[in-house]
Amino acid sequence: MKRKSVLYIDIAEQIKNDIQNNIYPVGTMLPTENDFENLFEVSKITIRKAIEVLALQGYVEKKSGKGTTVISNRLFNKLSKGDSFSSILEKKGLSLEKRIVKIEKLTLDSEHKLFAFFGNRATKVTRMYLINQVPYIIFNHYLPGKVTKAMKDKIEKASMYRILAENDYLVDHFEDQFSVSILGAEEKELLETETSHVMKRVRTSYNEDNQVIEVSVSLYNTEIHPYEIEFEI
């Protein structure tokens, strides 16, 4: 019996579940695009997008002319979803709360530093992370204008990368820059601190064509908790 037709994000989730349940073991080849087309009753491009999502998440590797190989069945592939820091905090038993502060539509002029990435329209999402109910991080996400206020409910529940993927913006890689930033009055109020200096991280996310599809500016009050990175060897 064939499965009901679904969106490529949902197809990716179903294939990922099959990988995690060892239906498609690590080291084996996934069924062909034609097989998946028939199974899910969708177009070839939908299947390709689903496979791209799985490759981005570190579950499969696609090689031209050789098919798609399963390379991981882990529930979370570190450094593949961009939320490993959240996982680290939660593993330490810290209560992590995420809040949407505001979502804005921006009109950019040609002199704006983001104009080269997004043109004259962009969406700014401001979020807060709290640890044990104490304000810890301010996130300012700058996204393509296509990502709108109407997506607030999704943004509150899903990762930013998933939101981008649902709008056909697939993150292939990102670059991080770290520096020290001086807080303004509004930022001090959000973080509920008199601290003047915090850690600043600017993350620039690219698609496979090396085009910028998201810029996030994050301010961490490291007096609350240090910034941590886990590397898997």
UniProtKB/TrEMBL annotation:
Keywords: DNA-binding, Transcription, Transcription regulation. GO terms for molecular function: DNA binding; DNA-binding transcription factor activity. Residues 5-73 form the HTH gntR-type domain. Pfam families: GntR, UTRA. It comes from the Bacteria. Gene3D superfamilies: Chorismate lyase-like, Winged helix-like DNA-binding domain superfamily/Winged helix DNA-binding domain. GO terms for biological process: negative regulation of DNA-templated transcription. InterPro entries: Bact_HTH_transcr_reg (IPR050679), Chorismate_lyase_/UTRA_dom_sf (IPR028978), Tscrpt_reg_HTH_GntR (IPR000524), UTRA (IPR011663), WH-like_DNA-bd_sf (IPR036388), WH_DNA-bd_sf (IPR036390). This is GntR family transcriptional regulator. It comes from Vagococcus allomyrinae. The lineage of its organism: Bacteria, Bacillati, Bacillota, Bacilli, Lactobacillales.
